[in-house]
């Protein structure tokens, strides 16, 4: 067909490139993860996540107002709890006056229209750093589901809009959905981490929350019996379809960049919105390379975010959310 068709014609200027651009990033694409700690006046940088912070509740209100003003309208809350509150069953997770429950109220008080999503998993509350209850050297599936459903209910009662179970137990979406229905929380949504892989990219996050699996006898050293094997692709679709049947409103793939084949498979297979979590290790890699002067931070950030959306994400949980929105201007 050459020279009748010259593809470069559509690349000759920024004007024509922007006219034919297929993927556009806007503030509407983002969910902002926030790390919350006890205390007051605390804004501490996470060492392996430069320019990302754990903040106390008194600063959280200001933070969410700033996000809202930037057009960022969804947050995903995580809490770092004191060691003395941790046990195997994650009992503190359902304390109506616990840190998460107060954080939800703080965000809603400061910014009533902000969409509040909450992490539902036992690891920040677990003395063993596991997402579920440990027994007989393994993670107990069904007992954990009961605990997660109670935890989710407690978040809903505190005012959470969407529960985000990040644990990968079998059947937890069903358990959570039926509990919410029975208790009258018909409009509380569930964003399921449906295809979550056992990934070494979560390292900096576990530093942030002090939630890594403990090195204790008879406690599994990793999360490979519940999180997925990164060698598997078809399994991600199976996991995700099951979560939708169980009542998930939004499904998620995690991590992001190394899993874009999975994102596209799932986008093609489902009829619900697809979220992608661009995780802590992805953030840390770029920050480190940029600090060395080896990569152009803003250019690579935008390229990565665009790639995730292009692969099929309707929304992205990303530590770069503020940076990207500032860059977009
Ligand atoms: C745990 C949880 C993890 C992340 C979100 N929820 C870590 C893990 O599974 O060990 C990781 C997020 C990130 O790395 O940014 N329920």
UniProtKB/TrEMBL annotation:
Reaction(s) catalysed by this chain's protein: 2 5-aminolevulinate = porphobilinogen + 2 H2O + H(+)
Residues the record marks as active site: 196, 254
PROSITE patterns: D_ALA_DEHYDRATASE
NCBIfam families: PRK09283.1
Molecular functions per Gene Ontology: porphobilinogen synthase activity; zinc ion binding
Summary of subunit composition and partner proteins: Homooctamer.
List of residues binding Mg(2+): 239
Identification of the protein by name: Delta-aminolevulinic acid dehydratase
Enzyme class: lyase
EC number: 4.2.1.24
Gene3D superfamilies, sorted: Aldolase class I
Alphabetical keyword list: Heme biosynthesis, Lyase, Magnesium, Metal-binding, Porphyrin biosynthesis
Upper classification of the organism: Bacteria, Pseudomonadati, Bacteroidota, Flavobacteriia, Flavobacteriales
Pathway recorded for this protein: Porphyrin-containing compound metabolism; protoporphyrin-IX biosynthesis; coproporphyrinogen-III from 5-aminolevulinate: step 1/4
UniProt similarity note: Belongs to the ALAD family.
One GO cellular component term: cytosol
InterPro entries for this protein: ALAD (IPR001731), ALAD_AS (IPR030656), Aldolase_TIM (IPR013785)
PANTHER family membership: DELTA-AMINOLEVULINIC ACID DEHYDRATASE
GO biological process terms on file: protoporphyrinogen IX biosynthetic process
Organism: Dokdonia pacifica
One Pfam family it belongs to: ALAD
């Amino acid at each position: 067909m050459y020279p009748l068709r010259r593809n470069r014609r559509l690349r000759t200027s920024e004007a024509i490139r922007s006219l034919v651009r297929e993927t556009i990033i806007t503030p509407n694409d983002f969910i902002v993860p926030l790390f919350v700690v006890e205390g007051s006046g605390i804004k501490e940088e996470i060492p392996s996540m430069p320019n990302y912070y754990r903040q106390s509740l008194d600063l959280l209100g200001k933070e969410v107002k700033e996000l809202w003003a930037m057009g960022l309208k969804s947050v995903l809350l995580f809490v770092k709890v004191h060691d003395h509150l941790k046990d195997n069953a994650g009992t503190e997770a359902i304390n109506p006056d616990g840190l998460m429950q107060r954080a939800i109220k703080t965000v809603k008080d400061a910014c009533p229209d902000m969409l509040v999503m909450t992490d539902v998993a036992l690891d920040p509350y677990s003395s063993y750093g596991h997402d579920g209850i440990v027994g007989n050297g393994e993670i107990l599936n069904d007992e954990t589901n009961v605990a997660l459903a109670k935890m989710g209910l407690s978040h809903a009662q505190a005012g959470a809009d969407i529960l985000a179970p990040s644990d990968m137990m079998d059947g937890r979406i069903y358990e959570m959905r039926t509990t919410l229905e029975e208790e009258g929380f018909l409009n509380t949504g569930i964003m399921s981490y449906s295809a979550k892989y056992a990934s070494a990219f979560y390292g900096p996050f576990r530093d942030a929350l002090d939630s890594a699996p403990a090195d204790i006898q008879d406690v599994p050293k990793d999360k490979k019996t519940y999180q997925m094997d990164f060698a598997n692709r078809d399994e991600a679709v199976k996991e995700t379809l099951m979560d939708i049947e169980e009542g998930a409103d939004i499904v998620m793939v995690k991590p992001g960049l190394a899993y874009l084949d999975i994102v596209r498979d799932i986008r093609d297979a489902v009829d619900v919105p697809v979220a992608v979590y661009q995780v802590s290790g992805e953030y840390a890699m770029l920050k480190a390379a940029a600090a060395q002067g080896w990569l152009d931070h803003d250019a690579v950030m935008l390229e990565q975010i665009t790639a995730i959306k292009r692969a099929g994400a309707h929304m992205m949980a990303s530590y770069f959310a503020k940076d990207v929105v500032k860059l977009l201007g």
